Amino acid sequence: xxxxxxxxxxxxxxxxxxxxxxxxxxxxxxxxxxxxxxxxxxxxxxxxxxxxxxxxxxxxxxxxxxxxxxxxxxxxxxxxxxxxxxxxxxxxxxxxxxxxxxxxxxxxxxxxxxxxxxxxxxxxxxxxxxxxxxxxxxxxxxxxxxxxxxxxxxxxxxxxxxxxxxxxxxxxxxxxxxxxxxxxxxxxxxxxxxxxxxxxxxxxxxxxxxxxxxxxxxxxxxxxxxxxxxxxxxxxxxxxxxxxxxxxxxxxxxxxxxxxxxxxxxxxxxxxxxxxxxxxxxxxxxxxxxxxxxxxxxxxxxxxxxxxxxxxxxxxxxxxxxxxxxxxxxxxxxxxxxxxxxxxxxxxxxxxxxxxxxxxxxxxxxxxxxxxxxxxxxxxxxxxxxxxxxxxxxxxxxxxxxxxxxxxxxxxxxxxxxxxxxxxxxxxxxxxxxxxxxxxxxxxxxxxxxxxxxxxxxxxxxxxxxxxxxxxxxxxxxxxxxxxxxxxxx
Length: 490
Description:
Layout: H1 7-20, H2 27-42, H3 51-68, H4 71-74, H5 78-91, H6 100-114, H7 127-151, H8 173-178, H9 182-208, H10 221-240, H11 262-283, H12 285-292, H13 301-337, H14 346-366, H15 378-398, H16 403-420, E1 426-431, E2 434-439, H17 440-444, H18 483-489
Antiparallel strand pairs: 1-2
């Protein structure tokens, strides 16, 4: 979760603080401590924090800001850089998630000024400091790629920036006395797996989404298919290279194992969710090709043949990945209900569930086309519809008063209503065989515009994302799908 902080060094300073008081540490380190407390308060459960916990978390965060402003903006040093990266990571799981981009920009500026991107700037430093600078650089690089996909904006760090060697295990005093640390090695393996997976994601955004540049340059369908083939092969190579104790799970294999370290179980679950998200990102452009084709606009019949022969298998793979996301999050919540917590980053569960649901809704729209209605069986279509219903149930369980999750759920209800032409007074779905009912009028009364990330969240199914970061008020003709396309299918 926090790769740029060395546990032993951090705990040593913490014990010094307890023994000697606040004058024994710097203000920036006190700010680091407060942000760690803020993150901890935000991930205490697999569901979003209660209002009380969210307020405690924000209190720690604002206390950290008070301790270091304005020096955190004016001075570039390694501790300030750690703090900026921490704050950016914290904000991604709060109602202020759009501010993460601001702190990330400051972190990139500081990292480049300190030379973290080049081994030359660190070659004369002690091994521990050199390793932590490397980890911090990769942490910022990961955030850069993820936020680029989240917000539909170009990356701040160029892909041509010279890469450092991957992080290594840190030999601390405790590890020397107790032998090799399984958890420490697994933590490094997890970090390296995320780094290499993020590289595949970056390649996908560059190849299939035009690097989120906002340019409307058309890409031929066959080129998109070739890009998907190459990137799916990269994902398979990535899976094969994972160490034995880190592997991609299925929803059926998610359970709490008392005989295994909890940290290792959490790492596998989080890595699986990240992998499924990247896989959907890779496969989703083929959905755009299906949605953009319209026989009423004099579409090219050769494109239909190409999509039916080569595109449909990718579309089915994409649906399978979306269904697996919903099933994984259901399994995470099932474990949580049993009294164990194997994924505290609840916003990941919310983001990927919402993303998967929107992609499935796009496929359901495709199935209404006379050109493609036979590509999916009625049973498969029914299962896709049921998966969106399950996603609504999942989002409800994730929600402990979180505005973002509530709006995600409400927008899915709107989509289901418009797709199925149900009565506007209520939206119905099934949860474990029990029929649930929502008062649609009450839940949507005076609703505010909804701001949510672009490429990774899946709102913009048709384009590269929202370069301007503008507010998204859910409308089938704005943001998610082109209005004329939706009008032709629904």
